[in-house]
Every structure is written in C-alpha cells, then in structure tokens.
Specification:
Layout: E1 5-9, H1 16-25, E2 32-35, H2 52-62, E3 67-72, H3 74-85, E4 90-96, H4 105-118, H5 124-131, H6 136-139, H7 141-153, H8 156-167, E5 182-187, H9 195-204, E6 208-213, H10 220-223, H11 225-239
Parallel strand pairs: 1-2, 1-3, 3-4, 4-5, 5-6
Helix pairs in contact: 1-11, 2-3, 4-8
Length: 241
C-alpha cells in the first residue's frame, strides 16, 4: 500500500532534521515523509528568492503529486501559501506556531540588522527564552542545545533573506480562499506567534480547526513530538479525506 506524502517545513533558525526528527520518526509508518530547509539553514545553501511565495514554489517544484503539509512558524506560513497557490495538489495543512502575518516589518528589519551586525550567534540567548515552554531546557538539555546550535550555525545571509520575506508576508485577507482542511496548532506559551494568530487562521479558512498545546511555546514539533505526530496523523488520515 502506498503511503501518502507528507512534507515538513522548518521554523526560522532551525534545520528540519533537528526540529522535526523525533516527530518524523513517529510518522514514517503512515507517511512518506520529506522535509526542506530554509536558505542557509541545515543542508541548504543560501538561495533566492526567500519570500514566502518563493519558498512555497520551491516546495511545489521539489515534490510530485498530491501531498499533505505540516510546518512550524515560517514553515507554517509557507503551508498557507502553498494551499493558496496549489489547492489542487495540497490535501491538507497542519499550521503550527505560525500566522497569516507574523511580526511586523519593523521587527523583522531590526532582527535582520542585528544579524548583519553580530551574526546569528547573537540571537541564541533571546531565542532560548522565546522558543521553549517552561522547564523544557532543563527537561531536554540535548534537544534544546541542538536547536540553539542550528540557529548559531545558520548562515547570516540566509537568515536575513527569510526575515525580509516575513516582513512583507500577509495573507490575512486571503484566508477565506483556502479550501483545503487546515489544523491550526498553537503553543500555549508562544510569544512569537500567540494563540490568537492560530485562532485567526482556523476561523479564517473555509475548513479550519484549532488546537492548543499546553506547556509548549514556539517549536511544537520538538517540544511535543508525540502530541504533534498524533495531531498530524489524525488530521491527515482521518479529518482531511
């Protein structure tokens, strides 16, 4: 029996393997799982364009046939864009810790300027406070350390390019065009993409559902891999038929 294709998208500052590795392992019995990396992150070189529309097109170019999609943060934003651009190919979307608009143009410009001045390692301390729910670093020191190292190792040019793409991303007025089933998953402690952003997505698309994960902040696939795997499995294999 052929397993359906599931495409996984990363959060800014992470590589897909580190963010999704444990969760993906729990999904390989049910899906043919593949993942992609942002420019200058993980195994990916720096590339253009890094607009959300450009990243969505790269996803569409690299996979064949219909597929399910799950992504965190910017990866989730790409999922919304893919659903807008190729509704005939996307079977369902799980949008985690994301939004139809994330941050402001000013906040992304400030982040890009910081990286230009001091590099991605300068973001590690602040990101440790934003990325993880209460007690996660103490409970999972190796996992949190690996994620923070992926940020430190990200190439400055790639990180800046994604910041610039996020600065102009805004599909709030287009959510009603999305007809594929969307599961919007919020972290209860996410200050980057608060639960209100995920509720907006769930309420705005034609077939949306909202779930909030307790104890989780911004990197749900790594913070709660089993819970996220269960949500993806249920949404894609049961709810998105």
């Amino acid at each position: 029996m052929t397993r359906p294709l599931l495409v996984l998208g990363p959060s800014l500052g992470t590589d897909a393997l580190t963010l999704w590795g444990d969760c993906a392992e729990l999904l390989t019995a049910d899906f043919d799982v593949t993942a992609w990396d942002l420019p200058g992150h993980g195994s990916a070189p720096v590339f253009e364009p890094a607009t959300i529309a450009g990243l969505a097109q790269r996803v569409l170019d690299r996979v064949d046939g219909p597929f399910f999609y799950a992504g965190d943060s910017v990866g989730g934003a790409v999922g919304l864009q893919v659903a807008l651009d190729a509704p005939d190919r996307v079977l369902g979307v799980v949008a985690l810790c994301t939004g139809a608009k994330i941050g402001t143009a000013e906040s992304w410009a400030e982040r890009a300027d910081q990286v230009r001045a001091s590099g991605t390692p300068s973001l590690v301390t602040a990101s440790a406070g934003r990325w993880f729910g209460p007690g996660f670093i103490e409970r999972e020191p190796s996992r949190s350390s690996a994620l923070l190292h992926s940020l430190s190792n990200a190439e400055d040019e790639g990180y800046i390019a994604v910041c610039e793409g996020l600065a102009v991303f805004d599909v709030r007025d287009r959510l009603g065009e999305i007809a594929v089933p969307v599961l919007a998953v919020a972290g209860a402690h996410d200050a980057v993409c608060p639960p209100a952003l995920l509720r907006e997505v769930a309420d705005g698309v034609q077939h949306g559902r909202y779930v909030e994960l307790p104890g989780v902040a911004h990197l749900a696939p790594a913070e709660a891999p089993a819970a996220v795997a269960d949500l993806i499995r249920a949404h894609c294999l049961e709810g998105a038929r």
